[in-house]
Amino acid sequence: MLAARDRAALETVAEECRAKGADVLVAPTDVADESQCRSLVEQAAARFKVIDVLVNNAGIGMIARFEELPDLSVYEHLMKVNYLGCVYPTYHALPHLRASRGQIVAMASLAGLTGVPTRTGYAASKHAVIGFFDSLRVELRGSGVGVTVVCPYFVKSEIHRRAVGPDGQALGATPMKEDRLMTAETCAALTISAMEHRRRMLVMTAKGKLGRFLKLVAPGLVDGIAERAVERGR
């Protein structure tokens, strides 16, 4: 089951999946709309009879200093896509996942574990994602439903070009040095491995793992590392 807003892009991916023998259903979906998320789950259940895994991967970035914002409407949009866009499909899929003793996967970010300058809105939304799924995991103990939270570092993808600025409009260009970033293919492979092992959380890089430890013993140092990473674009 493939869901995103762009039907043409979905169909391209669907054809690649079908070429490998998969049975694929495409459902254009805006995850910021709860009714569309409910429809997505209903279509999946009707077509495949069972839902084994829900991967919450939709998201939008933002690059702007907080004081540059003309108003806070862009924050509302980020929270609706990045946070509620995970909550809505999870809510509607959960009964099916309980029945299958399935798995929920949430694509968060290292920005959900520490503060990142010029990413205040994005980091806040990813903190919310991690808090929600960590709490849900506890609620689901004993149900057989696994919850895996994935925290990538910077990944080469369209999210940087489509990130919005202070006016809420897409930047159209990335400030990142993409030749030094993890590829989307590597990110996907690491995510699949974490899913197969039903890991609680996946932090993909040594730098990210070190940062989690340093935040406990030297939080000021982590602030400086985050600032320099953004300045360097990697």
3D architecture notes:
- The chain is α/β, with parallel strands linked by helices.
- Helix content is 49%, strand content 12%.
- The chain has 7 helices and 8 strands, in the order βαβαβαβαβββαβαα.
- It has helices at 7-19, 34-48, 73-100, 120-139, 184-196, 206-217, 219-232, and strands at 2-4, 26-28, 53-56, 103-107, 146-151, 155-156, 182-183, 201-203.
- Strands 3-4-5-8 form a 4-stranded parallel β-sheet, sandwiched between helices. Strands 1-2 form a two-stranded parallel sheet.
- α4 (120-139) links the parallel β4 and β5.
- α2 (34-48) runs parallel beside α3 (73-100).
- The two termini are 33 Å apart.
- The model has no long low-confidence stretch (mean pLDDT 92).
Sheet with the most strands? 4 strands, parallel
Helix/strand order, N-terminal first? EHEHEHEHEEEHEHH
The helix content, as a percent range, equals 40-55%
Mean pLDDT over the residues: 92
Count every beta strand, where a strand is a DSSP E run of 2 or more residues: 8
Task: Give the amount of beta strand, in percent.
Answer: 5-15%
Spatial arrangement of strands, main beta sheet = 3-4-5-8
Radius of gyration: 18 Å
Shape: globular
The number of helices is 7
Question: Class by helix and strand content?
Answer: alpha/beta
Low-pLDDT runs of 5+ residues are none
State the oligomer.
single chain
Distance between the termini: 33 Å
